[in-house]
Amino acid sequence: AQTVTQSQPEMSVQEAETVTLSCTYDTSESDYYLFWYKQPPSRQMILVIRQEAYKQQNATENRFSVNFQKAAKSFSLKISDSQLGDAAMYFCAYSASGTYKYIFGTGTRLKVLA
Amino acid sequence: GAVVSQHPSWVICKSGTSVKIECRSLDFQATTMFWYRQFPKQSLMLMATSNEGSKATYEQGVEKDKFLINHASLTLSTLTVTSAHPEDSSFYICSARDPKVAGGETQYFGPGTRLLVL
Known about the structure:
- The complex is a heterodimer.
- By secondary structure, chain A is mainly β.
- Helix content of chain A is 0%, strand content 53%.
- Chain A contains no helices and twelve strands.
- Chain A has strands at 3-5, 10-14, 19-21, 24-26, 32-39, 46-52, 60-61, 64-69, 74-79, 88-96, 103-104, 108-113.
- In chain A, the strands form three sheets. In chain A, strands 2, 5, 6, 10, 11 and 12 form a six-stranded mixed beta sheet that branches.
- The radius of gyration of chain A is 14 Å and the shape is globular.
- The model of chain A has no long low-confidence stretch (mean pLDDT 95).
- Chain B starts with a strand and ends with a strand.
- Chain B has strands at residues 4-7, 10-13, 19-25, 32-38, 44-51, 57-58, 67-73, 76-81, 90-97, 107-109, 113-117.
- Helices cover 0% and strands 52% of the residues of chain B.
- In chain B, strands 2, 4, 5, 6, 9, 10 and 11 form a seven-stranded mixed beta sheet that branches.
- Chain B has no helices and eleven strands.
- By secondary structure, chain B is an all-beta fold.
- Classes of the chains: A mainly beta, B mainly beta.
């Protein structure tokens, strides 16, 4: 069975600094997708970034980038120039290609300090 | 694009009554919608997958007769919590998949519905 692990329940970062959130997963599939979602206090889930497993290039969206290590089954999220609005719960999710179902990690609460 | 709405945003009901939650994809046709439940400070737990025009597929441990799901059109799925009890109080979130988006694996989430059963 596939699993997603986020080992950091909580992280803090100073405003304008960089922080990395970790995510590991376990799967025997070769074709899958990985996602990072942000859930602010409003509880609206917002897509931050997505990565296709067949792409070696790490995905980037403005201040957000990932370090995708397929062999190590690791998918970390780097947030650069952290802003107060980045404070939220961050969930890592896995989806095997064709299933369309997500498996979520337990989440990491990110605090941004002014 | 890819906006999903939910209604109501929160509801309080008496024990024993039924509550219906609507999930709509506003600017795309969603062949597949998903219903999740989230307890405080926890992750999202998938309850069921809803496919337009067919019966929903429930995850193990989710009572089909308790949580009725109907996906009557390509833009609307409903979750009815039947004979609600206090233990059904939770935050319910729907999501929808846009098959036309490259890599149609991406789910777009509604804002959620907070249910409180007294």
